[in-house]
Amino acid sequence: MKKIRFKKLTLSADIMLRIIIVVSIALISLIGYIDYASRQLVLNTAKNFTEKEESIVLLKVLDFLKEVEHAYKISVITSNKGDIKDQSLEDFMLSTVKFVDQINYFEIKDQKNYLRITQLPRNRADLEKEAAEIIPAEAEFLLRKTEQEEEKNIFLNTDLKTISSLQKLPNIFNIQPQQKKGWSNVSIQNGIPFIHYTEDLTQSNRPLEIILGVDLKILSLLLNSICLTDSTHIFIIDEHKNVIVDSDVASRKHLNTVEEYNNIPLKTAFQLNRKNTDKMKRIKFFNIDKESYFSIVTDMPKNMGLNWQIVSIIPTQDFLKDFKNIEISVLIILIGIVMLILTFLYFQIQKLTEPISYFSIEANHITNLELEDPVSVDSKLQEINELGHSMEQLKISVRNFSKFIPKSLVKKFIDAGKEVGIEGELTDLTIFFSDIANFTSISEGMAPNALTQQLSEYFEMMSSIVLKNNGTIDKFIGDAIMAFWGAPDHDDQQINRACRTALICQQRLNAFNKYWESQNKPIFITRIGINTGPAIVGNIGSSERLNYTALGDTVNLASRLEGVNKNYGTSILISESVLKGLDKNFITRPIDVVAVKGKQKGVRIFELVGLDNDPYLHPISSNVKELLNLFSKAFDLYLSKQWTEALIILNNLQQKNITQFSIPDSVVESYIDRCKQFINNPPSDDWDGVIHLKEK
To answer: Backbone dihedral region of 417: left (phi > 0), alpha (psi from -120 to 50 degrees) or beta?
Structure first.
């Protein structure tokens, strides 16, 4: 299974992430605990308020009913003072209906006569059309009298003054209460729930009945006004499970049972109360559609003669809404505090991790062998300062180490991330050898310090050119330099780069020689040999001491070519294999076919003269190119044994060279001598033109 690798974090980001995780867990836990504890506190408080609400509601209901009973007792006293036809009794009944809000029906009757007062519905739109046409618009009360079976209806205004009277009235006002002693069942009259209180009295040996009609709509409005919260809902349920009072609904067309009532919290609270076996735990908590509620069911006292239950339902949200606002404010404050703390920690962590980030950058510089700048860090932490000192020592060590081994090779070792061992590989390399002519004689005539200084300047110049052209310096052998291209990094342009390096070295050396000559110092004449081909390259040596170098015939031939320069008076010699890989802009001429010491097979060697279209090198003139072409033609004639024809061209070439440059060409002179010799003394038929060299 492939291992999943995640992107690495910076140290400061990692520390901040860990702190944020810890703070977030702590903050969530704290908020969770505060939320839980606060909710429990709020809910417990809500339970206490619910219990108080129950007491207040019960007292208000009892007061409502007892006020009716009190009015009844006064009516008994008043009725005892006079006859049913007495005007004072009529006035008392009118004032009772007018000023006792819950009473809107008052009737006193004996066996022959009755006196009935009925208050008109406050909403005249509830009247039937016929009644609305008959009853005066300004009428407030309806007085209905019956005497000796004659009925008349008298309408009065708010001052109890007669407006008009009618002999007939629609049945909408013909209210017939249930003839049940005490409190009756609830009925709907003109869209309003009513209940009646009835008693029989015997006065002066004649039966007398008093009936009080109670408007339960007033009780609904009363309960609505005393609700603990805006969403509190109070119901009164009768013995038949009818919802007779609803704090939110005053007028209804008919009664509904709890099951028929469109209120799920009411149904749930009622069912929970029926299942409640512990009467001490009357407050219930339940959830409906993610909304939670408190409910409490209270039974009416038995002495009231009403088998009613008062159900109060309070959404917990009413208690928690203010708490939620406080909770949000606390959360915002906590988040603000945490953000301030994290901001402070961020800057502190930045100060702490800044040196470490700096060390990380310096480590990358070391990996990339960017070793020039010193490690400079100043921290209040001793460990950071010690790490900075160690980093500086490491940088110095690598810088010193890279002076002995090519930087590209050092980087390769660093990138490998493992211990270096003895190893080698066969690959195509381009080998470069340089040597100072007559260095032994030069060194004998100079003081050691002066020689060392001048030689250092020479090596610095040569080495920098090699390195800038992607070359690898193998070693310094006395005054000689060995370098190669193609390792440790593959290089498709290794031949061109090696030859360009040789040309730049010779051009720069001419400038150095002019400077040294002006300082009365000896000049250095450098000879260079270049060959390309397969060679073994790698770490050669013992387990204790290794040298990254190249071995093989390709290396040996390059070394021999450097030495062959002195035989022809040339400064840069390349092999035919190098010539085949050169870009067409390089300018060369053939020199000879030689078999170096120890080899029987000859190889063609060429002089590297220049490079066209290079921004750094001096251009080669057309005159020089013409002379080189003439020599190449003469060289081909020479190898084809046409020595006479070759001699003619060579003599002409020698004359042009002396005329243009005032110096003889030693290569041309050498071939003039050879042609003359072969013309006079022709070689054997198996002559192949190869010159076998006896010296290295």
So the answer is: left
| pLDDT computed for residue 127 by the predictor | 61
Q: How far apart are CA 106 and CA 149, in angstroms?
A: 19
Residues 477, 439: Cα–Cα separation, whole Å: 12
Residue of 184, 186, 218 whose CA lies nearest to 198: 184
CA distance 657 to 684: 32
Indicate if the pLDDT at residue 555 is higher than 90: yes
477 φ, ψ to 5°? -115, 95
- Please state whether the peptide bond connecting residue 170 to the residue before it is cis, i.e. omega within 30 degrees of 0: no
CB 176 within 8 A of CB 136: no
Place of tokens 């308020």: 49
Q: Which of 287, 280, 282 is nearest to 316 (CA)?
A: 287
The pLDDT value recorded for residue 14 is 72
Q: How many CB atoms lie within 10 A of CB 304?
A: 15
Q: Residue 204 has what pLDDT?
A: 47
- The model's confidence at residue 222, banded by pLDDT at 50, 70 and 90, is confident
Question: Do the Cβ atoms of 312 and 57 come closer than 8 Å?
Answer: yes
At 637, give phi and psi (nearest 5°).
-65, -40
Running DSSP on this structure, what letter comes out for residue 557?
H
168 neighbors 68 (Cβ within 8 angstroms)? no
Interatomic CA distance for residues 399 and 410, integer angstroms: 10
The pairing of strands 103-109 and 206-215 is antiparallel
What residues contact residue 70 under an 8 Å CB cut-off, 6+ apart?
Answer: none
The proportion of the chain whose per-residue pLDDT surpasses 70, expressed as a percent, equals 75
**Residue 646: Cβ-neighbour burial (10 angstroms; 0-12, 13-18, 19+):** buried
Distances (CA, A) of 529 to 225, 347, 594: 114, 62, 14
